[in-house]
Amino acid sequence: MASGGGEKRAWMDDLKKEFTGANEELELAQWKKHSIYRVPAAVRELHPHAYRPQVVSLGPFHHGDEHLMPMEQHKRRAVRHLLRRTTKPLEEFVAAVEEVAPELRDAYQYLGDDWRGQRFLQVMVTDGCFLLEMMRTAEPGGSSGKDKASGAGGNADQNDPVFGQHGVLYMVPYVRRDMLIVENQLPLLLLEKLVSVERSNDAVIDTGPKVDVNKMVLNFISPSCKTPPPKDRGLHPLDVFRKSLLSTEEDEEEDASSIVRSATELYEAGIRFRKSETMSLHDVTFRCGVLSLPLIVVDDSTEYMYLNLMAFERLHAGAGNEVTAYVFFMDNIVDLPADVALLTSKEIIKNAVGSDKEVAKLFNGLAKDVALDPKSKLDDVQRSVNRYCRKPCHVWRANLVHTYFRSPWAILSLAAAVFLLAMTVLQTVYTVLSFYQGGNGCDSPLVAPAPR
To answer: Which letter, b or e, does each residue of 383-392 get, where b requires 16 or more Cβ atoms within 10 Å of its Cβ?
Structure first.
């Protein structure tokens, strides 16, 4: 009993000491410094894949995850690229980050003591350089030619698997998605410090690294976003993107190429489909309202064939993006079984697997996590098709067909309404004519009696 009482007094004394030494203001200030959090287990279990990066770790929370290790060598390459382009020594970048290391560390909630010192500093520098290089790679002309931010030459190898055109097609979409994971954030203060060192001796007028970093991040995460970035430095990329969604600034008209329509929707807008003269995937054209597509035979081997072709294009730098672009284009065209039925009737799809639903499911599954190369011929076709559909006369026609001609009952209702309207007009015309022909509706005119 005595020992039990002693243990109770011990933990009570420890708790009292903790209360005595606690400073509520300092504790509250410490919590305010956090901006990058771990997702609670109860929330994570609902959607386990939504909070887990797929290709790259940014920051300490997922650093060292086994499935993300292949990207570590490219992070080190990014540091070399940045140093070569800026001709600045590594020591300057490290010193700039080291100045704000405590503030950077405080941004992460529940960061253990093993992340103090050089390990944390190394991750911040390498991950920050990697993110800057990826964002510049995705800029127009960013993988070659001159870098917009620094004015120095960029990476000359277009076939670089990460920092070249090949990386833009196959790596950027994954990095962009990983940047939106709440546990996978880098403080924008880090990027600002790296950019400030990079520009420290620039002859170009500096417009302010805070605004530039926000804009750089937003342009990378959402290239089609037209809203201006926040004026003040964001906390991290996810915070910048969130603020852009909440912006009250007017957005410009959506780019035509970003609107994707299915075959039936295109048909309702007046576009006609025709089988191309060849089976070449390059033989996709749009002229005078006619979209020509090559014949595709869908059988049990189609899925494996296209998956492996796309895998080769993804893995072999320099192989191109033609097959992947075609699959992406067809996924846009084929959305529902009705789209398959329409293209089958035009002899564009030869269905050897059975139901139209299975064909639609096949195309929708093939195009998962792929993107259309903005420089490809198919992107030009997509733009032309969407410009055609955006014309007022074609929009009106599509709305009319969609509203009144989608089912026999809608057609009958429209016919009945037209018939009733016609009968009402005829009755009105008949009444008016009878009125004038009958002399105001009387058989003979009224005559005053003659005087006697």
So the answer is: bbbbebbeee
